[in-house]
Design a protein that fits this description.
By secondary structure, the chain is an alpha/beta fold. Strands 1, 2, 3, 6, 7 and 8 form a six-stranded mixed β-sheet that branches. The chain has a two-stranded antiparallel sheet with strand order 4-5. The chain starts with a strand and ends in a 5-residue tail after the last strand. The protein is built from three helices and eight strands. The relative contact order is 0.31.
Length: about 150
């Protein structure tokens, strides 16, 4: 399971010309799920993301978590995070999980994140063509992979 996390001052998802979700200050999480992922990946990533100290304290140091600042979150499924481009110029997405496997994990990630955050989060729509808009704050962008827990 992979996440591309961006600290944002605002972010939104639009589907078919209609805005589905909008958040203010917080995190945009682009979430990619692969066939080998399971509940343990969800638990590890949610715990890690909620505890990341990427928000500034009064001294301007990144020392506060999303929980500390009462921030918001927007979670968007993104199978292209598992693209392979080793051969040729057309990405292969064979490692990305099929919808019947990925959707339950995506839903579990959202509910686990909401429980940990203590409030609802914004979401995209699994499998939909979406337009994601954001203002990256910092910029701060972090890559997390449950298969490579650095």
């Amino acid at each position: 399971m992979r996440i591309l996390l961006q600290r944002v001052s605002e972010a939104s998802v639009t589907i078919g010309g209609r805005e589905k979700s909008r958040i203010g200050s917080g995190m945009l999480l682009l979430l990619g799920i692969e066939q080998e992922d399971g509940p343990e990946d969800v638990e590890w990533l949610v715990t890690k993301v909620l505890s990341l100290r990427i928000f500034e304290d009064p001294d301007g140091k990144m020392n506060l978590s999303l929980l500390d600042v009462g921030g918001e979150a927007l979670i968007v499924s993104q199978f292209t995070l598992h693209a392979r481009v080793k051969k040729g110029t057309r990405p292969s997405f064979e490692r990305a999980a099929r919808p019947e496997f990925a959707i339950p994990l995506y839903d579990r990630f959202i509910s686990t994140f909401e429980n940990g955050l203590g409030k609802p989060v914004g979401t995209g729509e699994f499998g939909a063509m979406m337009q994601v808009a954001l203002i990256n704050d910092g910029p701060v962008t972090i890559w997390l992979d449950s298969r490579n827990r650095e």
